[in-house]
Amino acid sequence: MKPASWTYADQFVAEDEILETARGRAREVGVTPIGAGGGATLRFLAAVLDAKAVVEIGTGTGVSGVWLLRGMAADGVLTSVDVEAEHQRLARETFSEAGFVAQRARLIPGSALDVLPRLTDGHYDIVFCDGDKQEYPAYLAEALRLLRPGGVVAFDNALWHDKVADPSQRDAETVAVRELGRTLAGDEALVPLLLPVGDGLLLAQKI
């Protein structure tokens, strides 16, 4: 695929001023949110599943949260976890600007691996992971507990800056993301898919 075609596909669903503003906030605080193509995928996934309960690891400034909420059921609730309370404050501004009432987003400050064990087993339609790459395997274990049958786990940065496909790249983050992909691909209890949108979006449905 030519780069122009890839860019065309990745930007096929345009972002509005609300998302552009949220991206501006992300740049100011040094956060890299999911790309437009990945965000559109999350919205599509939430809509197809008629998602009412979603967990997000990595709130950022609300870019991925807006995409998810726009696809979720009208009474759906997004539970988002982030170690940076200031980022979550900015995300609340984004959600408000997008027209979502406060009750639609439950923002929990703290480490994902401290917070996730407190959430309800089998209750969630989607678990979206965009946190510490070295913790991705641990996120997967928690996600499989949290998801209902038919629910989907999604991992951003699944190509990790073009490093995952290059076997010579052996840094800890690349190895963790690469091994995660192998785990999902080899698990017969999952239906896996790797999409080359943005920096890669790895999905798996829990059978």
Automatic annotation (TrEMBL):
It comes from the Bacteria. This is O-methyltransferase. GO terms for biological process: methylation. InterPro entries: Cation-dep_OMT, SAM-dependent_MTases_sf, SAM_O-MeTrfase. One of its GO terms (molecular function) is O-methyltransferase activity. Keywords: Methyltransferase, S-adenosyl-L-methionine, Transferase.
